Amino acid sequence: MKKWKKISLFVCVFAFVRELRPIEPFYAAYMTSPIVNITLTQTSRDVYAIGAYSCFGLIIIVFLITDYLKYKPVLIMDGICGIIAYCSIIGHPSLLRMQIGQVFYGFFFSSEVAYFGYLYAMTDDKRYYQRITGQARAACLSGKFLSSLFAQLVSFVNGSVPYVELVYLSVFGMFFSTVWAFLMPNVTNSVYFHNERSESIDQPTPAVSNSTSFTGESKIIQDIESQPSKIKMTNKEINKNKSLGQVLLYLKKDFIRSYSDPYVRKLCLWWAFAFGAYVQVYTYINVLYTYVLDLNEDSHFTLYNGAAESLNTLIGAIAAYSIGKLELNWFKVGDLFLGIGSILAGIVLLGCFYTRTMWFIYAFYIIYGCLYQTMLTVAESEVAKRLSRDSYGLVFGFNSFIALFLHTLMTYGIVQGHIISVSTIQQFLIYAVYYMSIGALFLIFSIKNYFSSGSTVSFIECKQ
Predict the structure, then answer these.
(1) What CATH number was assigned to the domain covering residues 242-453?
(2) Does domain 1-194 have CATH number 1.20.1250.20?
(3) Count of H-run helices and E-run strands, the chain
(4) Which among 32, 96, 46 has a CA at the least distance from the CA of 417?
(5) Separation between Cα atoms, residue 196 and residue 238, nearest integer Å
(6) Residues of the chain with pLDDT under 50
(7) Can you name the residues that pair with 202 across neighbouring β-strands?
């Protein structure tokens, strides 16, 4: 088996088992059940909010220790933190115990960047980036699908949602992911702390005309890459083990080099803002289910949260895998694709605001998940193809940092009501307007790109 296939297999299995957390679709319902017995407001403002703050506070720390420890130990810690997070809600937990568990959940959530960083650090050929991105994303979504489907089937068989059993199964899933992380191959070199790296002097990047065809675009890249001496000069070798000062210097250089490409900046803008809203929607959709159910005063309605989540992830996985194999000139059509997709995502979230029928809310959430996962796969793979491998973890980490900052800001200002006080269902109106604004911006980018296609733009694919 080729190395890239082997590494992709290891990461896909890890991503799959990491999502075997069947309590997730019913988390809010579990919080308000007689077992835990806290209110829906406490769930949103006192439990979920701590997780949001923890994610934001830990993302930079996780990024730095991921590189220093060379990925694998962080993957192991990821599983251990997941075990602690779900053990904290076993039995009749106090509010303080659940909040402490949310701190560990913050590390668990923030560590997603670690296994994507591991994937790209172990894959030498960037030609496979789009494919392995789609495979890893599909594996992650497939794990969510089976986990949610299992939770729903168990609920059907049991006649009600077996909350306690689902929590224990979630702990087991985290244990299995920890064991699998131990079995994954070691990374010999990391990007910053443990790497034989040259101090380089970046020369001005020549501007090239954007080709109107995919073939022409590839030829331009090949012509540029055939003359590396014009782009980069090396003047001395640096020792393999780096000091903190050297690491910070490399971080600064990689940051400037990576985000100097306007195309990368534009994709990262969509990525960070869309991901921030996605975390909000994913976190509070279960709160919305319980809120609407209480609003309708329908005590006989059977929750289908697991079925909705399973369909959401199944369709999203198929879409992510399919888009990963689709060869289009995304440089030309990407803005239009992200613009239309974001507006459609806003429209279906607007449907969640207007309807009081649970079946429609389930359907809208499924459509939203499919749209988001498809667009995310395109954005991730396109960014990956235009970065050096050394810079990939930095860009992913920074995008996640901005996304979690937005998530934290929305949690503080909207969910906890420090800026504007709204109900759970009104939150989804804000999310809808948010996505439609992103879509409108990218449609403007698309129109601008269409009318300026003859102008000179910088279009460089960085060498590894």
Answers:
(1) 1.20.1250
(2) yes
(3) 17, 4
(4) 46
(5) 7
(6) 198-239, 455-464
(7) 232
